[in-house]
Amino acid sequence: MINWKNLDSLDSYKELQNTKEVNLKEVMAGENGAKRVKDYSIKMAAGLTFNYAAKKVDAEILSGLDKLAKEAELADKFKALYEGEVINTGEKRLVLHQLTRGQLGADVIKDGVNKREFYVNEQNKIAEFAKKVHQGEITNAKGEKFTQVVQIGIGGSDLGPRAMYLALENWAKQTGNFKMEAKFISNVDPDDAASVLNSIDVAHSIFILVSKSGTTLETLTNESFVKEALVKAGLNPSNHMVAVTSETSPLAKSPDYLAAFFMDDYIGGRFSSTSGVGGAVLSLAFGPEVFADFLEGAAEEDKLAANANIYENPAMMDALIGVYERNILDYDCTAVLPYSQALSRFPAHLQQADMESNGKSVNRFGEPVNYKTGPVIFGEPGTNGQHSFYQLLHQGTDIIPLQFVGFKNSQAGWDVDIQGSTSQQKLCANVAAQIIAFALGKDDENNNKKFEGNRPSSIIIGEKLDPKALGALLSHFENKIMFQGFTWNVNSFDQEGVQLGKVLAKKVLAHETEGALKEFSDLLNI
Amino acid sequence: MINWKNLDSLDSYKELQNTKEVNLKEVMAGENGAKRVKDYSIKMAAGLTFNYAAKKVDAEILSGLDKLAKEAELADKFKALYEGEVINTGEKRLVLHQLTRGQLGADVIKDGVNKREFYVNEQNKIAEFAKKVHQGEITNAKGEKFTQVVQIGIGGSDLGPRAMYLALENWAKQTGNFKMEAKFISNVDPDDAASVLNSIDVAHSIFILVSKSGTTLETLTNESFVKEALVKAGLNPSNHMVAVTSETSPLAKSPDYLAAFFMDDYIGGRFSSTSGVGGAVLSLAFGPEVFADFLEGAAEEDKLAANANIYENPAMMDALIGVYERNILDYDCTAVLPYSQALSRFPAHLQQADMESNGKSVNRFGEPVNYKTGPVIFGEPGTNGQHSFYQLLHQGTDIIPLQFVGFKNSQAGWDVDIQGSTSQQKLCANVAAQIIAFALGKDDENNNKKFEGNRPSSIIIGEKLDPKALGALLSHFENKIMFQGFTWNVNSFDQEGVQLGKVLAKKVLAHETEGALKEFSDLLNI
After folding, report:
1. pTM (2 decimals)?
2. E-strand spans in B202-250?
3. Is the pLDDT of residue A180 over 90?
């Protein structure tokens, strides 16, 4: 029987509060610093490594985090989740996104269906469909091949798949796996759809409509937008559209689509990149084998997350260091800083995955909590960020913990040697330099040129950003978020906070407003 | 004589600390709320309006902010700045970006040069060059027209110009002002340059190299990258490249460029969108008249910022409400939320402009300050953000002040009517609804569905995002940042915090490392 307890009721948390804060300027200096880099490292899947040497931890604090992991029963809670308990208590749902890429425990049977088999079956349907498109067996009405794919979705149906597509686009081009260009329409702003439609060849495009419920305002509106464009171009929309939705949605059995691929209520939008939500667009863009490799990387990383030993579990370690920073050191934000242009939208995806999951003020029983939960997540790729907001990270009045990601090799392999080093070496040199600059700082008699240092960071290092590494990276952060949610005792899998705005927007459109809302509606000409 | 004093030494600040926090759930309800929306509004340039009804202010607090503005001598400091005093004391430089678009006071003569004339002259040189490119008088070696333009720059030479280009791209296409597609190379990650070069027709591309000093590592590296690609394609790089730099930089008189356009040390990178840094790429992409309109919008907004009356000065009001939120209400972040897909990178630009300017811990005399300065800035366009991180904004444990932007009309004018409303109406309905949802919240017997409300926001409303409106919007935020820097008594115009990382990265590349830095360098294979 699992115990769901608030963080501040745990003895190990109280013990942690009595530990002494680590001074990175001391521990990261000299040979001791070198030893920390070697010791504070955990192997991940797909050749990645999680290094937390530059975090404010030492043997005592790590031992405290280990106790916390055990007292909070993190491994047991993860097991309950992947074996099909109702972990999303608010919506009374199972949480099964890990099953879309592997199976860590006992079979999960729900309503007589083996869920792993269901997800694999949908993945296979998508693979078959994608192959037929690539081979020219599924074509437009004129029998011509489709060359572009456009995903219509918002939030989890957009950010994750878009970030994953951008992460692999150059890799796919370089390795001969690039099949079709993908574009994305998400915003209800009509300029979003107009811009994408103006940039593509609609006659040779497949549109993927993604909405679990089949009722998302933005997505249905953009579907109509696209259908009008297709009709205007003399095309039959049903020859150009597929749906990714739940079997119970109005879209599921509609004749308006070439095909329908299914997910279910147990896959949250922000955790759906490894389901058909990511699967359809990534399989069409890069081929189903690439998508399968991506899933394999995620599945391997999931296995590591099931380990109850925090010293061997990178996601659990990352999560608990984050809780320590948030609740004991009182840091309010976390910056995600990938030194890889291909990960340009990965921080935006994590921003959703993290802030929508753990931006909660009540525990899983609906009782207000007396401690801070999810932090603000933001970030941009390095080295770009270095010439932007890093000023505040180095010398601002708040300390922001940093999450670096770096790869030894570039994706395209095209490089130049300038002043004795390649661009890739310069990129890697910069991320190494930043970790030390943040940790150690630099004294100066001019205060304006002084760096306080003692600013914590971790880094995930990989060989090259390929499908497996990307899957492992995604799984790491999904599991980190889950473990933090368990520790804070919140339900990370609902999002009631998005409802009120929807209700009020409907009132505005129905002109059922008064007071300030009516005034703002008037100002905006609605 | 201006007095530069720390915020916490001002009497008006101490008075403000004794005011009572406004409860938005009370003041924004009913007819009082409607009245606030009408009253708490300031006209901006180009048809924009700044509305702060949903901020936690009342007559008493506003009066306190007015006193603070006067005691901090904000209008006088701005006048000193635009009339050429050495406001950037750390680097002993004038701060003249407003002069690139207009002149608010006395002539600024420096080293015998009238600086306004200098900037206008460079703008004219760019306009002439752009016209010749558009008319086919300046062509590639084969006499063919250039069709694409690629900006090579990083930080301020990238984020602002890129955000402005994206903001006007669809508007230009719709209004017949679209001349050339623009792309941007910034990151030292070789995959960035490779990806852009793979996506363009190099034989018909002009590259703009932007670096004030002519020594920026990333930019020079990417220049070499591009030059190699041009040579490989059998082209002479000097027929394809122009430079935007300072007259004293090594690039200024080089025969390697078709032309060189100048800025100077008095234009900070993050404030350079209205100088040649933005001017060259925007004039080539949309024509010099569009760029001139953009400058006109900024110049008109600058005029409003020179008004000592805070109730008529939107940038000053916005700035001081922000200081009140940061230092008295103790909020650590600000989210920028444009309801316009065209402003997709505007938050990233403001993230630099704000965090690099005011992320400081020492005052302009190099003395540590005892209060918080610049907040973390992040954001994404609505409605996308609503399906992402808004969960935390509505129900998280921290309150994040919000800065909305919305326009009554779309840019492309292409829209669909679904369920009785257009997409543009849905977009506007959503932003109006969000303001009220954040301010008033909603009670519910289920705590998980309860919204505490009392979360402050402001909104800038415009007719349509066109060049003038964009210029006004940019100016508003630049001036807001400036006024906040004055109030915090920091130097907003240097960025010493970016130096240490550069120094250490050089050491890594020279293999002059030891301890933890050597270990990380080894892990990254450098």
Report:
1. 0.98
2. 205-210, 241-246
3. yes
